[in-house]
Amino acid sequence: MDDSMNNVIEIKDVEKIFGDNAVIKKINLNVREGEFLTFLGPSGCGKTTTLRMIAGFENVTRGTILIAGENVENMKPYQRNVNTVFQNYALFPHMNVYDNIAFGLVEKKVKKSEIKERVNEMLTLVQLSGFEKRMPSQMSGGQKQRVAIARALINRPKVLLLDEPLGALDLKLRKQMQVELKHLQRKLGITFIYVTHDQEEALTMSDRIVIMNNGNIEQVGKPDEIYEHPKSKFVASFIGESNILEANIEKIDRDKLTAIVESGTITVYGKNMAIEEMVYISVRPEKLKCSITPVDGFTLKGYVKEHIYVGSIIKTVIELPNGYRLKMNSMSGTKLLDIDQLVYVYWNKNDAVIMRTKEEKIYNIIENVPQIKEVGL
Ligand SMILES: Nc1ncnc2c1ncn2[C@@H]1O[C@H](COP(=O)(O)OP(=O)(O)O)[C@@H](O)[C@H]1O
Ligand SMILES: [Mg+2]
């Protein structure tokens, strides 16, 4: 089957320029029917702008957006088969819950009896049955956000766009709403495009994550792919914690590469690398190990500097001779190394990722990105 048939949204070479500021730099992305897709990136990277271009609140400067195969260039927001949920809820303050949710259908002059039926269905869906007569001012943040979601879903959009919808809620409620939203999305099978700057939220909720940085798409992938195989230094450092070493490839023996870091040698596996090539090697703190005797292939030495207790894990800081501080996590209860103890740092095959520094450029068309090389003993 033609893969493009499953794409509900196609973003092709889309750019957005405000004045002379290119805030979106030629991005390409396909959104699949029924998926929970999250745009994740630091504040100001262009998440909201991208969402607003899909919704039709903002024009594209160049490029094309297709929704369900149709070019939406000349379509007004209400003509596109999408609805948006904003962070600030944007409820009508003078209308009760029932009227807020019914609003879209009243505008479309849907029959009263059908409106009633569909509003009730939505109230059940967001667990607000019995709240019909309440005014927004009489409701909590979480309840108001549920009304906003019901109001958007009642139009039965193909795609629901959510721009940091839980940002104003306290942590406990946010966690609860994350689970509820995910269940809702599964149950309805509607495509959700979700925007957040919270990596944990993105990792928990998404089928796929789009990592944005400075108007570019850096990587698109499933949460575990993004976490285990970051394709750039930015992704490796933005998602979770990473130890990132700059290294130079000294020797190549088929896939086995010897790389030199400032204070020692490490052995890595990788394809298509060149002698003398500068690379980044990224190792997660939970994958880093150390030994008081040298380990085959590794001569990277450091000194144990600190142990920090964080509940179930202990974070150990190992300082390299050049001053770079590596983080190593171990389970509480593990025997701790002495402070100032000399150790050799190493890791297991496949537990580190090697990234080209010269490919520290941006990947626009993710499908064409070369495979990540893995590092190992
Ligand atoms: N209407 C606008 N006019 C000029 N610049 C804008 C406008 N909207 C957004 N920007 C700029 O575009 C960049 C991306 O903004 P935005 O999409 O809101 O980022 P995010 O949602 O990721 O925090 C920012 O630098 C922001 O200042
Ligand atoms: Mg935003």
From TrEMBL:
Its EC number is 7.6.2.11. The complex is composed of two ATP-binding proteins (PotA), two transmembrane proteins (PotB and PotC) and a solute-binding protein (PotD). Keywords: ATP-binding, Cell membrane, Membrane, Nucleotide-binding, Translocase, Transport. InterPro entries: AAA+_ATPase (IPR003593), ABC_SmlMolc_Importer (IPR050093), ABC_transporter-like_ATP-bd (IPR003439), ABC_transporter-like_CS (IPR017871), Mo/tungstate-bd_C_term_dom (IPR008995), P-loop_NTPase (IPR027417), PotA-like (IPR005893), PotA_ATP-bd (IPR017879). Belongs to the ABC transporter superfamily. Spermidine/putrescine importer (TC 3.A.1.11.1) family. The keyword Nucleotide-binding applies. Pfam families: ABC_tran, TOBE_2. This is Spermidine/putrescine import ATP-binding protein PotA. Residues 9-239 form the ABC transporter domain. The lineage of its organism: Bacteria, Bacillati, Bacillota, Clostridia, Eubacteriales. PROSITE patterns: ABC_TRANSPORTER_1 (PS00211), ABC_TRANSPORTER_2 (PS50893). The keyword Protein transport does not apply. One of its GO terms (molecular function) is ATP binding. It comes from Clostridium algifaecis. CDD domains: ABC_PotA_N. Part of the ABC transporter complex PotABCD involved in spermidine/putrescine import. Responsible for energy coupling to the transport system.
